[in-house]
Design goal:
Shape: globular
Structural class: mainly alpha
Number of helices: 5
Order of helices and strands: HEEHHHH
Largest sheet: 2 strands, antiparallel
Helix content: 40-55%
Low-confidence stretches: 108-117
Mean pLDDT: 86
Strand content: 5-15%
Number of strands: 2
Radius of gyration: 17 Å
Protein backbone atom coordinates (compact mmCIF):
# COMPACT_ATOMS: atom_id res chain seq x y z
CA UNK A 1 0.00 0.00 0.00
CA UNK A 2 1.27 3.46 -0.89
CA UNK A 3 1.32 6.22 1.67
CA UNK A 4 1.77 9.94 1.01
CA UNK A 5 1.58 13.05 3.10
CA UNK A 6 -0.40 16.03 1.92
CA UNK A 7 2.92 17.90 1.75
CA UNK A 8 4.20 15.25 -0.71
CA UNK A 9 1.11 15.73 -2.86
CA UNK A 10 1.40 19.51 -2.75
CA UNK A 11 5.06 19.30 -3.76
CA UNK A 12 4.14 17.05 -6.69
CA UNK A 13 1.40 19.49 -7.75
CA UNK A 14 3.90 22.37 -7.54
CA UNK A 15 6.30 20.49 -9.82
CA UNK A 16 3.61 19.48 -12.30
CA UNK A 17 1.40 22.58 -12.23
CA UNK A 18 3.87 25.24 -11.21
CA UNK A 19 3.88 28.84 -12.29
CA UNK A 20 5.62 30.41 -15.25
CA UNK A 21 8.14 32.89 -13.85
CA UNK A 22 9.44 35.84 -15.86
CA UNK A 23 12.27 38.04 -14.60
CA UNK A 24 11.81 41.76 -15.21
CA UNK A 25 14.82 43.61 -13.83
CA UNK A 26 14.98 42.79 -10.13
CA UNK A 27 11.39 41.50 -10.04
CA UNK A 28 10.13 37.99 -10.72
CA UNK A 29 6.64 37.98 -12.18
CA UNK A 30 4.84 34.75 -11.41
CA UNK A 31 2.09 33.70 -13.83
CA UNK A 32 -0.09 31.13 -12.11
CA UNK A 33 -1.10 27.85 -13.70
CA UNK A 34 -4.88 27.84 -14.29
CA UNK A 35 -5.25 24.62 -12.32
CA UNK A 36 -3.90 26.40 -9.25
CA UNK A 37 -6.27 29.40 -9.53
CA UNK A 38 -9.64 29.85 -7.87
CA UNK A 39 -12.57 28.91 -10.14
CA UNK A 40 -13.66 32.52 -10.71
CA UNK A 41 -10.18 33.43 -11.91
CA UNK A 42 -10.06 30.38 -14.23
CA UNK A 43 -13.49 31.30 -15.63
CA UNK A 44 -12.26 34.83 -16.34
CA UNK A 45 -9.23 33.42 -18.17
CA UNK A 46 -11.43 31.13 -20.28
CA UNK A 47 -13.56 34.13 -21.29
CA UNK A 48 -10.45 36.10 -22.21
CA UNK A 49 -9.22 33.20 -24.34
CA UNK A 50 -12.59 33.12 -26.12
CA UNK A 51 -12.21 36.85 -26.80
CA UNK A 52 -8.79 36.17 -28.34
CA UNK A 53 -10.35 33.78 -30.83
CA UNK A 54 -12.99 36.02 -32.30
CA UNK A 55 -14.54 39.40 -32.53
CA UNK A 56 -16.16 41.64 -29.98
CA UNK A 57 -19.62 40.29 -30.89
CA UNK A 58 -20.37 43.25 -33.12
CA UNK A 59 -18.34 42.07 -36.09
CA UNK A 60 -15.27 44.20 -35.42
CA UNK A 61 -11.86 42.92 -34.45
CA UNK A 62 -10.92 42.92 -30.78
CA UNK A 63 -7.92 44.88 -29.50
CA UNK A 64 -5.34 42.09 -29.17
CA UNK A 65 -2.99 44.20 -27.02
CA UNK A 66 -5.79 44.87 -24.53
CA UNK A 67 -6.78 41.18 -24.51
CA UNK A 68 -3.23 39.98 -23.82
CA UNK A 69 -2.80 42.61 -21.11
CA UNK A 70 -6.08 41.54 -19.52
CA UNK A 71 -4.92 37.92 -19.58
CA UNK A 72 -1.67 38.85 -17.87
CA UNK A 73 -3.56 40.78 -15.20
CA UNK A 74 -5.70 37.68 -14.63
CA UNK A 75 -2.88 35.13 -14.36
CA UNK A 76 -0.26 37.19 -12.53
CA UNK A 77 0.14 36.30 -8.88
CA UNK A 78 -0.31 39.94 -7.85
CA UNK A 79 -1.60 43.06 -9.55
CA UNK A 80 1.74 44.80 -8.96
CA UNK A 81 3.54 41.99 -10.78
CA UNK A 82 1.10 42.33 -13.69
CA UNK A 83 1.68 46.10 -13.80
CA UNK A 84 5.46 45.59 -13.80
CA UNK A 85 5.34 43.11 -16.68
CA UNK A 86 2.85 45.11 -18.74
CA UNK A 87 4.82 48.35 -18.23
CA UNK A 88 8.02 46.60 -19.35
CA UNK A 89 6.37 45.16 -22.48
CA UNK A 90 4.27 48.17 -23.41
CA UNK A 91 2.11 47.75 -26.51
CA UNK A 92 4.51 45.36 -28.28
CA UNK A 93 2.04 42.78 -29.55
CA UNK A 94 4.80 40.38 -30.58
CA UNK A 95 6.28 40.27 -27.08
CA UNK A 96 2.82 39.98 -25.50
CA UNK A 97 1.99 37.07 -27.79
CA UNK A 98 5.31 35.35 -27.01
CA UNK A 99 4.82 35.74 -23.25
CA UNK A 100 1.32 34.30 -23.47
CA UNK A 101 2.47 31.46 -25.76
CA UNK A 102 5.19 30.45 -23.30
CA UNK A 103 2.69 30.70 -20.48
CA UNK A 104 0.14 28.46 -22.19
CA UNK A 105 2.60 25.75 -23.26
CA UNK A 106 1.64 22.63 -21.36
CA UNK A 107 -1.11 24.29 -19.35
CA UNK A 108 -4.81 23.51 -19.53
CA UNK A 109 -7.97 25.19 -18.32
CA UNK A 110 -10.28 22.56 -19.79
CA UNK A 111 -13.06 20.80 -18.00
CA UNK A 112 -12.36 17.62 -16.09
CA UNK A 113 -13.18 14.40 -17.91
CA UNK A 114 -16.06 12.32 -16.61
CA UNK A 115 -14.99 9.20 -14.76
CA UNK A 116 -15.51 5.75 -16.24
CA UNK A 117 -17.29 4.55 -13.10
Amino acid sequence: MSSFSLDDIRAAADRKYGSTDITVGETTVRLLNPLRMPKAQRDKLVNIQKDMEGTDGEGSEVDQVAIFQSALRTVAETSSQAKTLIAAIGDDLGVLAEVFERYTEGQSVGEASPSAA
